[in-house]
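batch job 7 of whatever, protein = HD domain-containing protein
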Amino acid sequence: MSPAHRRSQPPAVCWGPACARRVRQEAQQATVQALLQALELKDPYTRGHSERVGDLAALIAVELGAPAARVEAVRLGGTLHDIGKLAVPTGLLRKNGPLTDEERRVIQLHPGDGDGVLRGIAVLGEARAAVLHHHERVDGAGYPYGLSGGRIPEAARIVAVADAFDAMTSTRSYRSARPDAPALAELRRCAGTQFDPMMVEALARALAARPPAPGFSGPAAPATPEPLPTLCGATAAVEGPLLARVAAHPPTWAWLDAGAKGKGVR
């Protein structure tokens, strides 16, 4: 057989359960990467944030003793938690000024839109639950369904903590990253209202067990102390007092409700 003929042969076809699993995994990974690439084109910050949230969510799941398959499902839920923002107008995602009430309502549709995007992908069942419910609060004041406590899927409670922690510890164009310790302190302050205390403490243990980065000499002290809000969720602990003035809305983490973009409501 000539070299040219050999090159024209179709790729070998594998058989058996192991091969089928590998093919499904490769297809799933390709789908996730394609979705993230599309999201990055709309909002460059969101891609890195989503991948970090996935890693943090997996870290929490491992700390809780979840089996490998469950850890991967939670990781996918974290990675895809903001995929519904594909349905949010690009101008709104990138808006630098305050959000109106109507714009805020549009942003709050992204969990349901994300669930719709993933609905046809059967292998993402638990990940979909995290996407749909990651803005629920354990006190029932979240959205889209106002679920509370254990009615919120565990994966969503994990992703909510991972999402908040990354938003606080990531550098943004309008503020520098907070160190881990103040971010954890804020999560603990809102445990039992905004967040599941078990997930917050699992993250704290997992972070404490992680080896420090090379050359790390301890957290730097912030140049100017930032006061914490008096009511959990009533102000944006990270982005500043954004939605706190809007008393008509139930307490929510404004910096998450506004797509972790630091947007306010006029």
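notes: The two ends are 74 Å apart (CA to CA).
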